[in-house]
């Protein structure tokens, strides 16, 4: 009897245990479902920002753009060709505002002339450059006048190379520097805190230092618009010195016709071609021609009557028998020096390889962007897009770093110094 009761009790206990187990399983499933639903809801809340968060992000974006726009306006303010009484302070203010931006804000800088590259592009170490703006000049000054460049490495190698060559050649003359482009002067001052004299500042510095004999050596290629402006500036100061002489630019006298050449143009043609050939790894221009390689020297171009100088340089190349050397210009003036025209000439001549090199004293913005840049309107890109060539190479180097070119400037300064000495003696 007791045994039967025990069996029934065990049976009932097992049944209750099974029922309880089933009940727990149902409860766990319900809890799990509830938890997953809660997590999904939380995830949805995280994925969909609140209206307040959206407004905050919008405010931050607007604030970033406002800060960037302020810097752009400050850059545009100093991107001018005229210096004023506030220029020094404006340059300082623009740089300080730029330095206060975050990296993200810097990428938003865009104005009429402003962009992130104005302060952000690495063009080399400005501390290696000597602005040659010191006093204690003495009686004789050799003022080297350039358009200028904000590319630090090129300014040091090209303009600085010419200046050093002149100082070495004429130790009894104090070499000083002036730029004609105030836009570039402001750029270098704002970004690198390097102060370069403009023409008026340099000429007034000479007057204040009691200079008696002034020789002005332009680094310009030709008697163009920049040379005319230089001449006007010097003319207004000529009565403040015992003697003032302006030396010839690189290519010498312009000449009357497309085929007019001179010793200066011949020397330049030989020097720049030899340098390009050597840099390209050829033993001679003839070897390069046999390899199907053409060399293109890209100048700036101008609407000034001096633009004929580019045509004369092409004539000079032809006279020297340089069949695979071509002259071009960024501005396409003269018209037959435009990129499209040069491409057609090289295609017709049958050359399949092209080397692009600047016909400019400095390898600055034009050389790096207009010639060798990746934008579709650069010369490199246009040559590639033509589909006519197997290889396009670029040589980013200014004329000023070529020793033979430096020697030409030295010779031009010598002619001016000798001419000055003779006139003073009389």
Verbal overview:
This protein is α/β, with parallel strands linked by helices and 426 residues long. Helices cover 54% and strands 11% of the residues.
Major β-sheet strand ordering: 2-1-3-4
Total beta strands: 8
How much of the residues is beta strand, in percent?
A: 5-15%
Distance between the termini: 155 Å
Largest sheet: 4 strands, parallel
Oligomer: single chain
Helical segment count: 16
What is the chain-wise order of helices and strands?
HHHHHEHEHHEHEHHEHEHEHHEH
Structural class: alpha/beta
**Based on CA inertia axes, which overall geometry fits?**
flat
> What share of residues is helical?
40-55%
Which consecutive residue ranges, at least 5 long each, have pLDDT under 50?
A: 1-35, 421-426
Rounded radius of gyration (Å): 35 Å
Mean pLDDT: 89
């Amino acid at each position: 009897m007791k045994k039967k009761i025990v069996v029934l009790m065990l049976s009932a206990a097992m049944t209750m245990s099974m029922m309880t187990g089933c009940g727990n399983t149902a409860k766990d499933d319900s809890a799990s479902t509830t938890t997953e639903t809660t997590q999904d809801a939380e995830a949805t809340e995280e994925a969909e920002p609140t209206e307040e968060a959206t407004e905050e992000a919008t405010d931050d974006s607007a604030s970033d753009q406002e800060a960037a726009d302020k810097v752009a306006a400050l850059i545009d303010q100093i991107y001018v060709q005229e210096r004023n009484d506030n220029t020094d302070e404006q340059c300082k203010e623009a740089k300080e505002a730029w330095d206060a931006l975050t990296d993200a804000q810097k990428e938003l800088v865009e104005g009429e002339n402003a962009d992130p590259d104005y302060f952000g592009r690495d063009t080399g170490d400005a501390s290696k450059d000597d602005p040659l703006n010191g006093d204690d000049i003495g009686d004789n000054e050799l003022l080297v006048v350039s358009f200028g460049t904000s590319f630090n490495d090129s300014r040091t190698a090209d303009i600085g190379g010419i200046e050093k060559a002149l100082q070495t050649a004429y130790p009894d003359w104090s070499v000083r520097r002036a730029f004609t482009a105030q836009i570039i002067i402001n750029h270098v001052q704002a970004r690198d805190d390097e102060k370069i004299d403009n023409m008026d500042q340099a000429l007034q510095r000479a007057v204040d230092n009691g200079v008696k004999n002034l020789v002005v050596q332009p680094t310009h290629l030709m008697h163009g618009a920049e040379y005319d402006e230089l001449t006007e500036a010097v003319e207004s100061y000529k009565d403040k010195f015992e003697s003032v002489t302006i030396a010839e630019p690189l290519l010498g006298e312009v000449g009357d016709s497309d085929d007019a050449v001179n010793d200066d143009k011949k020397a330049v043609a030989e020097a720049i071609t030899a340098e390009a050939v050597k840099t390209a790894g050829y033993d001679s221009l003839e070897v390069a021609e046999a390899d199907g390689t053409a060399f293109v020297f890209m100048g700036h171009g101008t609407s000034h009557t001096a633009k004929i100088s580019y045509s004369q340089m092409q004539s000079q190349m032809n006279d020297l028998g340089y069949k695979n050397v071509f002259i071009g210009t960024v501005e396409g003036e003269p018209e037959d020096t435009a990129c499209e025209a040069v491409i057609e000439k090289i295609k017709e001549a049958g050359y399949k390889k092209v080397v692009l090199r600047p016909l400019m004293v400095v390898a600055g913005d034009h050389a790096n962007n207009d010639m060798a840049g990746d934008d579709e309107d650069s010369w490199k890109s246009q040559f590639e897009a033509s589909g006519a060539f197997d290889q396009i190479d670029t040589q980013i180097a200014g004329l000023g770093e070529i020793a033979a070119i430096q020697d030409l400037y030295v010779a031009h300064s010598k002619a001016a110094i000798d001419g000055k000495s003779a006139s003073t003696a009389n």
